Structure formats: structure tokens, C-alpha cells
Amino acid sequence: MPPARSDRLSDALHRIFEGRRDTPASWFALTGGETLFAEGDAADTLYLLRAGRLGVFRSESNDQPPQFVGVIRPGEPAGEMAMLAGSPHTADVVALRDSEVLALPRDAFFEAARTEPDLMVELSRLMIQRARDRRSGGGEPSVFGFISARPRPIRAFVERVAAAIEASGFTCQVIDHSALSSAADWFSRVEDSHDFVLYVAEADEPAWAALCARQVDRLFVVGQCLLAPPNRPLPHAGVLDAQRRTDLILLRDPRMARPHNTSVWIDAVQPGRWFQAMEGDIVDAARIARVITGTAVGVVMSGGGARAYAHIGALRALKEAGVPVDFVGGASMGAVVAAGPAMGWTLEQLEDRIKRSFVDSDPLSDITFPMLAMSRAKKVDRLLEAAYGETDMADLQLPFFAVSTNLTSGRVEIHRRGRMRQAMRATIAIPGLLPPVVIDRQVLVDGAVLNNLPAEVMRQMNAGPVIGIDMSQARGVDPQLIEHPPSVWRLLATGAWRRGPPIVSIMMRSATLTSDAEIERSR
Questions:
Q1: Which residue, 19, 157, 176, 339, is the most exposed by fewest CB within 10 angstroms?
Q2: Does the pLDDT of residue 9 top 80, yes or no?
Q3: Where do the domains of the chain lie, and which CATH numbers do they carry?
Q4: Contact 249, 270 (CB under 8 A)
């Protein structure tokens, strides 16, 4: 938890900004979402934050949105490095809350520094500490907003989330519309005295909702599965939208077997992530609490053919150890297994479905002349349709992704929306064994070709612990099968043809060699 404002406001900085009448420091206010300075701007002013929060954002490339680097709290300077170096600013600094700022021109700063020998030492200390905070994950979100998008109260849900946060050993404060007239420094004091702060705004509180959107690190728009999203614009602060820091929570009635209508809400809200929660359910509230506290667990599963069956055992071990699974994803057969918890299947149901669909049914037995692949995949298509029907990935009960390899673009394709059976078909399309899949004119094959353990995709979704389960080890081709390949008659007589001739192992191994380096980087 960050130190209180009085601890961070150094004596020398306090004197030159507020304690000396001869220093021409000026005061101004920033509304949440406003930019203090942008990357490339001239650094001719030193700023000191009096109340609120500022966020630092840096662009890694022109085709990517700026990434959140760190936070500036009350009592800390902004723009000091570029000002001291005499170079342009290297990042954007944006108000994360309604903030109060003091500004001191560069010339006035250096004039004051001549009579304040401790000033440079204090600035150096603050810069070093800030660098350490960023390397260690300092500045992680601690203030979250919950805004109801439909006329249905959400306070009880937010209170359950807060109770789960406190049960984990953190302090948490829920703030409602009664704080609408409070000053910016009051909000700062509340933040400084709690580990987490949750703002809650009901649908009939537009002014308070707009203020909440300007005061938080991340915003949850809370919708209802049974209702369509509103036609009016939702109260996002522009900076939250730009940084993809708006998430969606869809509440559903306990009588609903599974979520639906999620894609309509996603199109309306444009969230970075989306979550499902049953009204009154403590388990779902606890999952949102783990997302907030950075303790949500993401599980990523690799491909590995028949060995991926062992992923079920890994899930069982996690359950027996009391480890919750909050996000799931994977590649190839690992994605198929990961889809089970996301669908809401029990481990027994998952094991039974995998066994019936991929073991007992011999899905690759519809051999054809290999124009595109050795199998026509008609049997695989029927099995996937029976398992997933028309399920939309957005309606899954847990956040889920699968990866495939895009032969059109040469990149990894991440599937989070669309028909579940299409994504599953793409992620298991082993080149040469199953025909590629075409989605939106993109030719897709097995995700293991480029990334067999997509842990970095999970890290983009989840800030908490990521567990990677790799079943691809020891998958090399048996030299005996190459030097002394079995005859066709032997394959037929022994039933070994069901596993495919040696060419299948060669194709599978060749197709996934590229992703070995990715697996090493994921460890």
C-alpha cells in the first residue's frame, strides 16, 4: 500500500512549491482523463501532484495503444527526468482521477535549487524508488468502479465482492453517490488508507457515474444477460477506453442455465475483458475479487495429441489443492480440454466427453485422398457440433481463449469470440492430418504450429498467477519407426492404423517444432 501523502511530500519539494513566496508556482485542476503532457512535448515545467492520481503511459510502437507504465501519487513530481535532462517528454501523463497539480517553470526550479541543497538528492531518491516500483509491479490498480448499465441495483453484488476482498486479508472501502460533493483530496485520503476502493453507481445516478469513471484505475460496466444494453452512451472516461481498462460484468438470474447475449453487450461496451456472474453467487463474487486483487489464477494448456488427456488430471490436482481456476486457454488439444471448465462442465463430464469424442470414436478414421489432408474431418466436425452446438465463446462461464496458426497472415490467431466449434476445429487442424479451417477468409491450422503454450496471451488477460501445463515434452519421432517402418498389412492386422502411419508423427513433429522456442520463453 502506498505511503500517505504527508510521507511522500518531501520537505524540499514542499518548500519550493508551497512554502516560498518568491517561487512562481501555479495551481490548476485536471479532470480525470485529461492529459498533463504528451510524449514529445517540451519539458519546460516541473509538476507536483497535490491530490488525485496521474498515470504514465508509453507507446512501444505506432500500431499499438500506449501501455500503462506506472502511477504518480500525491506528493510526487511529474516530468522531472525530462526537465533535468533538457529533453522532450518520453511518455504521456494523464489524470487517472480528478486531480490538483502545482506547476513550476524550469528556470524557477533551477533558481530555487541553488538555495535548496537537498532538492536534487530528494528528486534522485524519488526517481530511483519510482523505477523500483515499476519493476516490481508498483502502481497496480487499486481503485475500481462498478457502474450499472441497466435499471437494476448492483450495490449488493459490489458488497459481496468487497466482502471477498476483505476475507483475503485486504482492507476495502465501498463508496457510493453520497460522496458526490467531496473534494479531490478526500478521495485521495480514502485511497491512501485502504488497499482497495470500490466505487458503485446505479443506473439512475448519471452525475455520480460520470465522476466514478474519472476516479478509477479500472471500470466495470455491469449489465444484465436478460436485458439489451442501453442506447445512450455509457459513462467511460476517454483514457479508460483508450487503454482498454473498461471491463464488462454480465449478471444473470440463477434460473438461467448458462449466459447468453454477451456479444451484444461486448459490441456496445467495447470492453478489454468480460466476465459472467450469477446474481447472489458467492463463488462468482469471489472470482471478481481475485481479479481485482491480482490473485486470479489463469491456466494455460499445451497441445500434445493423446497426451493432452492428462490435462484433466492436472485440473483435478488443482481442485484437490484448493486452487481456483479463473481464466483458461490453450492450444490444440490443450484448448479442447481447457474449454471444459469454461463451458461449466464438471471434471467427470469433461473426461467422459473427451473419451467419447477423441478416444472411443476414432475421429480421424475418415481417410481420404490427401488433396488437403489425410482425413476429411467430417467425423471431427460432427463431434465438435455435438459437444458445443452453436455456443458463442463470449457466453462461456469463464474467460477463455484458444489459439490457431493463421497461414494467411503468418501470425498466431487468438479466438475469444465466435462459434466455439469453429475455434476448436481450427486449433486442432494439424497440417496434413486435418484440413485447414477458413474463418473470415483467413486460413487457419493447429495453434501448436506457432505457439504450443500461449502463456503470454494469458498474461495479457490476467495480472495474477499463470499456470502453464506442458504435455508436449518427449514428443520426438521414434527412430525405430523410420528405420523399420511397419507394413500396411501389419498396421491393419494389429489395429495400429487407427493411430496413423509414421507419417502422422513426422507431420505433427514438423508442424510444432517452431513453437518449442515459444514454450521456453513462456517458462
A1: 19
A2: no
A3: 5-135 (2.60.120.10), 143-293 (3.40.50), 298-474+515-522 (3.40.1090.10)
A4: no
**How many whole angstroms from its chain centre is CA 228?**
25
Among 250, 325, 345, which residue's Cα sits nearest to residue 283?
A: 325
| Dist. CA 51–CA 186, nearest whole Å | 9
CB 152 within 8 A of CB 203: yes
Query: Residue 75 half-sphere exposure, CB side, CA atoms within 13 Å?
Result: 17
* Grid cell in block for residue 316: 483435478
pLDDT tens, position by position, 146-181:
999 988 999 999 999 999 999 999 999 999 999 999
> Worst-scoring range by mean pLDDT, 11-20, 113-122, 467-476?
11-20
* Pairwise CA distance, residues 92 & 98, whole Å: 17
**Active-site pick, 357, 446, 470, 515:** 446
Cα end-to-end span (Å), the chain: 29
Rounded to an integer, what distance in angstroms lies between the CA atom of residue 69 and that of residue 51?
20
pLDDT digits (tens, 9 = 90+) for 310-344: 899 999 999 999 999 999 999 999 999 999 999 99
Summarised one tens digit per residue, pLDDT across range 445-469 is 999 889 999 999 999 999 899 999 9
Please name which of 346, 300, 317 lies closest in space to residue 470, comparing C-alpha atoms: 300
412 in Cβ contact with 472 (< 8 Å): no
Residue matched to cell numbers 503468418: 410
- Asked if 208 and 201 touch (Cβ cutoff 8 Å), the reply is yes
What whole-number percentage of the chain has pLDDT above 70? 78
Alpha carbons within 13 angstroms on the beta-carbon side of residue 58 total 8
Residues 6+ apart with CB under 8 A from 495: none
Length of the chain: 523
- Active site annotation includes 446: yes
Quick one: the chain helix, strand, coil %, rounded to 5?
Answer: 40, 20, 40
Query: Angle at CA 105, nearest 5°, toward 103 and 106?
Result: 125
Distance CA(90)–CA(40), nearest Å, equals: 6
Q: How far is residue 37's CA from residue 30's CA, in Å, rounded to a whole number?
A: 11
Q: Is 365 one of the annotated active-site residues of the chain? A: no
Q: Strand locations in 225-358, DSSP E?
A: 246-252, 273-278, 298-301, 327-331
Task: Choose, from 10, 148, 188, 332, the residue flagged as catalytic.
Answer: 332
Distance CA 81, CA 459 (A): 30
Question: Which backbone phi and psi does 48 adopt, to 5 degrees?
Answer: -130, 125
